[in-house]
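FW: tagging you since you asked about this chain on Friday. Here's the raw sequence from the shared folder, copied in full. Didn't touch anything.
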Amino acid sequence: MIHADCYRAIAQRLIDANIGIKYIDMWNNQTQFEEDDMDFNRPAVFIEFSVAPVRELTFKVHELVYQIKLHVVSDLNSETAWVEGAPANMQDIALEHFEMIDLITFQLCGYGKEEIGMGQMTWVGMEVAQESTNIIEHIMTWQVRLTTKVAQPKMVVKQPKKTVNVTF
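HL: got it, structure written out here
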């Protein structure tokens, strides 16, 4: 259950931070559609489990060092250029996407949940994935170490035998 637990932990951390994210989901190429067909509120974060070499630590205990990618997608609202006569907050509106990235970074750098086998997250990369007339998408790449014991069988608990008293 380490993958589901890791996904839930990251999503819950971002939800609890209350930083303005309106939609969180598992990555499934959502931004590859025509902009009119993108059926999700923005800003949105999509969580993608990417490359993960696996190493056996002990019998039935494995370690995965994942590259987890967060696709941060926002509406492209305005120009960042200074324009004479433009509203004073025009540039602030345009830069909200980058502020979202900064807030995500603050929430996730060093975040981990040892009780589920999730080590601390380290931010290792960033790229522009898509920029169009209406949306902007950046991919933040994080490295996280997951330790799993999923190969262990569940313990079977035997019920004690019942004794029956018989009298003649």
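FW: The longest helix spans residues 2-17.
HL: agreed, and The mean pLDDT is 84.
FW: great, closing this out.
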